[in-house]
Amino acid sequence: MSDILLHPATAEDDEANDVEAEALLLMSLDFVKAHAPTIDKARDTVIQEMENMVMTGLADLVRLSNPTKLISESNAACVIAADGT
After folding, report:
1. What pLDDT was estimated at residue 1?
2. Which pTM does this prediction carry?
């Protein structure tokens, strides 16, 4: 590993590494096959949460871009809070 730091890779090294990388497919590993469904589910969860955050942020921007609506919503919240309902 220290050789990599002392001697930067050349174009020939890159080509050799590409050939080695192509020879080993990730899905050919039993470990990867066993955990692929869990990883896919986690990826889908992360994507869904990110989409929700984006939609919430955009909705907040739309709400904040209309100050009249924002003031009326704020007043309604105060009335509800004062009324107790």
Report:
1. 47
2. 0.47
Radius of gyration of the chain (CA): 27
Q: What is the pLDDT of residues 10-41, one digit of tens each?
A: 766 666 666 565 667 888 889 889 999 999 99
| Residue ranges per structural domain of the chain | 2-83
**Cα(75)–Cα(81) distance, rounded to whole angstroms?**
10
Between CA 63 and CA 3 the distance in angstroms is 57
Q: SS3 for 1?
A: coil
Tokens in use for 64? Answer: 């904040």
Burial class (CB in 10 A: 0-12, 13-18, 19+), 66: exposed
d(C-alpha 10, C-alpha 17), whole Å: 11
